[in-house]
Amino acid sequence: xxxxxxxxxxxxxxxxxxxxxDSNLExxxxxxQAFETGDIELWKEVVSEDVQDVSPMYxxxxxxxxxxxxVADFYVKNYTDVKFNEPVWLPGIDTLTMKPDGSVRAYGxxxxxxxxxxxxxxxxxxHNFDFxxxxxxxxxxxxxxxxxxxxxxxxxxNVVIFTAKVSKKNIAKYQELxxxxxxxxxxRNADGCxxxxxxxxxxxxxxxxxxxxxxxEQYETYLDWRFNEDPSKLVAKAIPLVIxxxxxxxxxxxxxxxxxx
Length: 261
What we know:
This protein has 261 residues and is an alpha+beta fold. The chain is built from nine helices and ten strands. The strands form two sheets. It has a six-stranded mixed sheet. Strands 8-9-7-10 form a four-stranded antiparallel sheet. A hairpin with a 5-residue loop joins strand 4 and strand 5. Helix 2 packs antiparallel against helix 3 (40-46). The longest helix has 19 residues, at 19-37. Mean pLDDT is 90; it is low at 4-10 and 12-16.
């Protein structure tokens, strides 16, 4: 009990001895409000153009204003009924002097609904904010952004699993075709293709391509182009490398009992 009272006293002293904290706290709350109300202009109002932001998106790391804005705009445009639940706001300290420095820390639980699929999300997060000249100049968002996007994805994805029987002696040449400028990059950039993965299994001598499409109609359009109009003639070059020729290639579709976990 004494430790709890001491902690409360320290926090109270920190706030009272740090007059900038209250005004900075209001800026941080406006940043949250921008997402709750879908007001990207409010986000612009409180974020410095010199901001350094640790993005929650996988692989992005620390980014500047333009990338930070793109991420914020993505959330504002794609989610509704957003709420930062049970927020815990705390004053930050200078890690060298261990004294309050006007920064703000926050813990809470984001919830909301995807506009495109109507599916809900709920996840815990941590945020830090540093300030300069009345703007947020450093911030970081720490939560599973990729998991969140997957969780609210479509109830059924349009998946195509393409397989080709390729012998070990031909796999290097086949992979060279797939890696060429006319290969899988073209497939991934086709209208409607949202994601693509490929790999080879030596034991079964099978090459797998996992493709995710907005619709099977778009996949069929791509397939017709690839077989009949593609100026690179990639399919014609690949067929001789496949065991059984065209009969050794097959596309599998999910049409029943689909589940995403």
